[in-house]
Structure formats: C-alpha cells, structure tokens
C-alpha cells in the first residue's frame, strides 16, 4: 500500500513543493515529483525517514554579565531526541566567562553532537570572554 506525502524543500531558496510516494510496507520511497534538483529528493528522503533539526536554546550562566548564554547544536540532531536534549540543557549551568563557540555539552542526549555557545559572555561588564 502506498501513500503520498507533500513537503516544501528547504535546501535552497526555490522552495519546491515535493510529493513523495511512499511504499508503507517496504518503508521506501517509490517516486518523487516537484523537485527541480537531486538535492530535493535527498532532502525529502531524510525528512520522511530520519528528520533532524538544529536545536537552539539558552543555558544558565553562573557569575556572568547576563544570566543565560544562547547555544545551538553544532549540527542537526534527530527530532525524537530534541525533548531529551532540552531537558539535559535545562539542567546545565556553566560558569562565566564563556567563549564564542565554546563547547557547552560535548554529547547532548547521546547523539554524539556538541552544543556550542553562540556568543561570548564575560563575567563582568567590559571584561573580554575567551
């Protein structure tokens, strides 16, 4: 039995509307329509079978000029790990100063992906952060 799934490709600015026909029994894609390049087909396959996202959030900072520092995953993580990653990061507290792209968590939610700081954060006003 097959079913269709519609996606908007986000690989490039064109934003093709892709229709993927999926064989549900074999768990494979039978055909694609609407994509203007091969990258669209690859995106659709990943999005259907293994969706991933870059996670952005904040982590608390102790002794910092600001109480939190913005962070993100260094690469996309599986969507089903986002809730676990958020819980893990909510429990973290780093000590200032924080450097730009400093690794805050080397392996978030067991994904093998690091969480990095997205800005420097000094301990005191006017102080330089690493």
Would you give an account of this structure?
This protein is α+β, with helices and mostly antiparallel strands and 130 residues long. It has two domains: 2-50; 56-117, Roll (CPE0013-like fold). It has helices at residues 38-49, 82-90; strands at residues 2-8, 17-23, 28-33, 52-53, 56-62, 68-73, 77-78, 93-95, 103-105, 115-117. The strands form three sheets. Strands 8-5-6-10-9 form a five-stranded mixed beta sheet. A hairpin with a 4-residue loop joins strand 2 (17-23) and strand 3 (28-33). The protein is elongated, with a radius of gyration of 20 Å. The termini are far apart. The mean pLDDT is 92.
Assign the structural class, choosing from mainly alpha, mainly beta, alpha/beta, alpha+beta, or little secondary structure. alpha+beta
Unreliable stretches: none
CATH level-3 fold name of the largest domain: CPE0013-like fold
Assess the beta-strand content as a share of residues: 35-45%
| CATH class assignment of the largest domain | Alpha Beta
What strand order characterises the main sheet?
A: 8-5-6-10-9
Q: What is the name of the CATH superfamily of the largest domain?
A: CPE0013-like
Overall residue-averaged pLDDT value: 92
**Number of folding domains?**
2
What share of the residues lie within helices?
Answer: 10-25%
Shape: elongated
DSSP summary, beta strand count: 10
Gyration radius (Cα, Å) is: 20 Å
Element order: H for helix, E for strand: EEEHEEEEHEEE
* Main pleated-sheet profile: 5 strands, mixed
The end-to-end distance, rounded to whole angstroms, is 57 Å
So how many helices?
A: 2
What is the CATH architecture term of the largest domain? Roll
């Amino acid at each position: 039995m097959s079913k269709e799934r519609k996606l908007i490709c986000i690989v490039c600015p064109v934003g093709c509307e892709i229709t993927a026909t999926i064989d549900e029994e074999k768990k494979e894609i039978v055909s694609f329509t609407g994509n203007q390049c091969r990258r669209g087909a690859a995106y659709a396959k990943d999005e259907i079978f293994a969706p991933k996202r870059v996670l952005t959030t904040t982590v608390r900072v102790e002794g910092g000029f600001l109480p939190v520092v913005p962070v993100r995953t260094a690469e996309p993580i599986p969507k089903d790990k986002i809730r676990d990653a958020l819980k893990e990061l909510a429990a973290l507290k780093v000590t200032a100063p924080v450097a730009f792209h400093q690794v805050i968590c080397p392996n978030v939610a067991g994904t093998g992906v690091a969480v990095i700081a997205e800005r420097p954060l000094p301990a005191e006003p006017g102080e330089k952060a690493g």
